[in-house]
């Protein structure tokens, strides 16, 4: 079983993602007149936080899933690994859209940017909730047992 501080680090990373999702929602609600500082700060934080969270998931969550005898958890791990590519790509797209919006040369209309932001933050919230549920399948136990 992994030390609890590693799980706590992942949970903190998830909270950071949820906080960014809240900011993205504020931005989407404010379109077409979004706060430039909020857009830039959120855009600059998004990709690094998504990448750091993926690293933590691979170091903390994936070994927990791989240690299980349950094949569906191994399939879940493979699916989550594939989703990392999509999440990274979409985080980059969101970041670029926010930067171009603030620069005054958006490639997308305000409605399209709002749709992109909402699509991302709703999907990310769902992703985080699902992974937190997976972590809770592996309660900390002194004898190191895992979900069979």
TrEMBL record:
<protein>
    <submittedName>
        <fullName>Hemerythrin HHE cation binding domain-containing protein</fullName>
    </submittedName>
</protein>
<dbReference type="Pfam" id="PF01814">
    <property type="entry name" value="Hemerythrin"/>
</dbReference>
<dbReference type="InterPro" id="IPR012312">
    <property type="entry name" value="Hemerythrin-like"/>
</dbReference>
<feature type="domain" description="Hemerythrin-like">
    <location>
        <begin position="15"/>
        <end position="131"/>
    </location>
</feature>
